[in-house]
């Protein structure tokens, strides 16, 4: 992987392209940072896997040993002394202990792009097609403890499947290897010395046996067994009395009509020894699966996607037939299918009984709901546990319905479509270039007609949607305090010009969609981040013509987790999760990785307003718009007259200066004389009392433009104030449910 990326700037974002030099198949972000603060990337390629440490403190430069100085590191006439066999065996039996040293300060401040600190290749002898990491929230190394597994503070735990029938559970030290470790003489003498499983990097390899076809997907979670519990794993002995952290790995393949297998693996293997574990559960399915993922909270629940039939939830710890279970291990031999989630039917010229193909589904809201993406660009949220912001009752998996089995859900809580996917839903209305041979209206070949390459092949009915490829990646954001953190989601449809949309904060986006569906609660700037879905544009520039084969998100560090120097820099630059995207979007091409950042000079109004620096009270001195942030001398409460009685009309276009500090809605000091006659206003019918401001509107429309006043106005400053009003209204809406406010109306 290149240490220095190619940088391309667009009006919306900045793209950093890293060429990998080999064909890649999958990429994942490990949720635990390394001890020096680096983010860990794991990607599978044609020869195995590569682990990348990005950001954090740099490794110190390689030290030249005294032996190298005496003999000469590059001397051609150096003499090699061969000792006896006994001494060689003793030296080989002594494991190498790596002690990497890091610099004191971070590589860069919060405003710059993190650099690549170290990479490590683990050759498996086959192409690594799928990589699975733990579904845990992001955390630093010193605080990593998920389900009581303290091994996560020192080890990387993940699963990988190859192009043949092999699948492995791999553990690796969390600290990046030093330069001295990668330059060891034994690694240069033998090309196979650094392969995965030899233990030279401190890694362990466990082979997951029992498969006769290549694996189609993986998922991994952790479970802690109690002392004395029995297990079917080969490496566990009955003499153990201390709790052992174990990993549950699930994999699906296309054997027969579809098979789902689960393995129980103890995380106490020794480096250099490859163990073999057989599955403790094997489920034969009516149709093959396309993806699986474990629930981050209910760790025994597995989300399985069978396109186009349904999304189903499987629990491996609940026996299908409790009375007939004869399992010798801690889990039953057969689990239970709890719930089925059905997508909507396709639309066509005639009545259709086929459902829309499911591109991907993932857990959201900390395992309480499921976000799905369909082949025609429609997305939807199935609310399982009643976690939506407007929910008043418990969910399906609450204590009152803990024994739920065999139920089904068809309706979405909220639903919509990705931007740019209308040709997928209406193929007949799609325009094709002249000479393409496709039906429809012929238009000249222009760059605009080549933008959506994935839709150029969708020319038929709904059966062609099965060729659409895409996915969903849910990135958990660092928690602000003791509560659960927020989540971001990336929805993408692949192709030469991929459609990639980002939900900055899922909870706020969900709440905004519910309010919009109810017909109320929509603020002035309802399309502003983070309450709307954002589409990333100009992505083929970074992919350099390659097709997008994957996408994931890298959470940005919060201010609470930054060093003191980085916190001050972030505060000066105004970088925060509330402004801009809280994640970096990572796109996987055929042989390169593209990391997309929000541009500092975005051309869109919303992005510019949200990315601007928060102003202080002194900056409001020359503002002519409404002041949202009150000065310290303003009273805590403001009285509002909500009477419906008739009052003399004051006009709405009276003030041309800033309002007084006595109240937000007080009348200004400078008032233009009224233009309407007093007797007409007093004798107006009661039915027109609410429309008397029309006279002021007509007066304002008839006035000539004051070029001097327009030249002195700061339009962008006024737009910023309007945006701040929206933020205040949004905060009031979020606090409305905390207490009850009563408003009394006076009678006229």
Overview of the structural elements:
With 748 residues, the protein is α+β, with helices and mostly antiparallel strands. The chain contains 13 helices and 35 strands. The strands form nine sheets. The chain has a five-stranded antiparallel beta sheet. Strands 9-10-11-12-16 form a five-stranded mixed beta sheet, with no helix packed on it. It has a five-stranded mixed beta sheet with strand order 18-19-20-21-25, with no helix packed on it. Mean pLDDT is 75; it is low at 69-93, 227-241, 431-443, 452-460, 572-578, 601-630 and 649-688. InterPro entries: WD40/YVTN_repeat-like_dom_sf (IPR015943), WD40_repeat_dom_sf (IPR036322). This is Nucleoporin NUP37. Residues 715-742 form a coiled coil. Keywords: Coiled coil.
**How many beta-strand runs?**
35
CA-based shape: globular
**Major sheet:** 5 strands, antiparallel
Q: What percent of residues are in strands?
A: 25-35%
Structural class, judged by helices and strands? Answer: alpha+beta
In which range does the helix fraction lie? Answer: 10-25%
- Sheet with most strands: strand arrangement: 1-2-35-34-33
InterPro entries: WD40/YVTN_repeat-like_dom_sf, WD40_repeat_dom_sf
Coiled coil: 715-742
Keywords: Coiled coil
Organism: Canariomyces notabilis
Descriptive labels:
alpha+beta; WD40_repeat_dom_sf; 5-stranded antiparallel β-sheet; coiled coil; WD40/YVTN_repeat-like_dom_sf; single chain; Nucleoporin NUP37
Write a compact overview of the structure shown:
The chain has 748 residues and is an alpha+beta fold. It is built from 13 helices and 35 strands.
């Amino acid at each position: 992987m290149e240490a220095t990326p190619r940088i391309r700037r667009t009006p919306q974002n900045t793209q950093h392209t890293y060429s990998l030099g080999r064909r890649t198949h999958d990429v994942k972000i490990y949720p635990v940072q390394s001890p020096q603060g680096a983010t860990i990337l794991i990607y599978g390629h044609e020869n195995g896997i590569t682990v990348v440490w990005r950001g954090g403190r740099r490794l110190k430069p390689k030290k030249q040993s005294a032996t190298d100085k005496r003999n000469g590191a590059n001397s051609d006439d150096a003499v090699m002394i061969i000792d006896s066999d006994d001494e060689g065996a003793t030296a080989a039996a002594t494991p190498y202990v790596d002690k990497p040293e890091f610099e004191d300060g971070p590589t860069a401040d919060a405003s710059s792009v993190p650099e690549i600190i170290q990479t490590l290749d683990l050759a498996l002898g086959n192409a690594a097609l799928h990589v699975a990491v733990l579904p845990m929230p992001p955390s630093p190394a010193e605080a990593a403890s998920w389900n009581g597994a303290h091994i996560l503070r020192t080890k990387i735990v993940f699963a990988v499947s190859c192009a043949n029938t092999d699948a492995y559970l791999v553990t690796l030290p969390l600290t990046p290897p030093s330069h001295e470790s990668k330059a060891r003489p034994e690694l240069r003498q033998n090309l196979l010395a650094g392969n995965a499983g030899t233990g030279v990097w401190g890694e362990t390899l466990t082979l997951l046996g029992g498969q006769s076809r290549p694996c189609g997907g993986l998922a991994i979670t952790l479970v802690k067994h109690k002392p004395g519990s029995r297990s079917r794993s080969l490496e566990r002995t009955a003499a153990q009395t201390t709790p052992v952290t174990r990993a549950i790995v699930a994999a699906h393949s296309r054997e027969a009509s579809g098979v789902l297998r689960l393995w129980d693996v103890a995380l106490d293997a020794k480096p250099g020894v490859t163990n073999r574990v057989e599955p403790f559960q094997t489920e034969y399915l009516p149709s093959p699966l396309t993806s699986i993922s474990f629930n981050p909270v209910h760790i025994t629940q597995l989300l399985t996607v069978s396109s186009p039939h349904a999304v189903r939830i499987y629990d491996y710890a609940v026996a299908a037939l409790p009375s007939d279970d004869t399992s010798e291990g801690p889990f039953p031999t057969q689990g239970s299918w709890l719930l089925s989630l059905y997508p909507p039917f396709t639309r066509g010229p005639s009545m259709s009984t086929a459902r829309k193909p499911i591109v991907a589904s993932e857990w959201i809201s900390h395992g309480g709901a499921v976000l799905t993406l369909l082949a025609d660009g429609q997305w939807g949220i199935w609310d399982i546990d009643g976690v939506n912001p407007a929910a008043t009752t418990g969910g399906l998996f609450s204590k009152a319905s803990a024994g739920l089995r065999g139920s089904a859900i068809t309706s979405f809580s909220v639903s919509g479509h990705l931007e740019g996917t209308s040709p997928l839903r209406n193929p007949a209305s799609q325009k094709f270039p002249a000479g393409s041979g496709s039906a429809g209206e012929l238009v000249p070949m222009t760059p605009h007609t080549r933008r959506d390459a994935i839709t150029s092949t969708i020319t038929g009915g709904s059966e062609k949607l099965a060729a659409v490829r895409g996915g969903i990646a849910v990135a958990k954001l660092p928690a602000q305090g003791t509560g659960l953190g927020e989540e971001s989601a990336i929805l993408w449809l692949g192709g030469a010009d991929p459609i990639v949309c980002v939900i900055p904060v899922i909870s706020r986006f969900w709440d905004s969609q519910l309010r919009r569906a109810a017909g109320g609660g929509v603020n002035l700037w309802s399309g502003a981040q983070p309450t709307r879905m954002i589409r990333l544009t100009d992505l083929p520039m970074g992919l350099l013509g390659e097709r997008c084969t994957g996408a994931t998100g890298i959470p940005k560090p919060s201010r609470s987790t930054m060093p003191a120097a980085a916190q001050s820099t972030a505060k000066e630059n105004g970088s925060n999760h509330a402004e801009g995207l809280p994640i970096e979007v990572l796109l996987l091409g055929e042989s390169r990785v593209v990391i997309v950042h929000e541009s500092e000079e975005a051309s869109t109004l919303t992005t510019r307003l949200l990315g601007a620096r928060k102003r202080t009270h002194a900056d409001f001195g020359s503002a002519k718009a409404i002041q949202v942030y009150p000065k310290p001398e303003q009273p805590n409460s403001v009285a509002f007259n909500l009477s419906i009685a008739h009052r003399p009309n004051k006009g709405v276009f009276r003030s041309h200066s800033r309002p007084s500090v006595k109240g937000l809605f007080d009348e200004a000091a400078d008032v233009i004389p009224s233009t309407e006659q007093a007797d007409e206003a007093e004798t107006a019918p009661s039915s027109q009392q609410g429309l008397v401001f029309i006279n002021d509107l007509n007066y304002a429309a008839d006035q000539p433009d004051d070029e001097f006043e327009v030249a002195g106005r700061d339009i962008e400053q006024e737009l910023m104030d309007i945006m701040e009003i929206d933020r205040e209204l949004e905060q009031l809406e979020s606090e409305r449910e905390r207490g009850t406010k009563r408003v009394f109306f006076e009678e006229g």
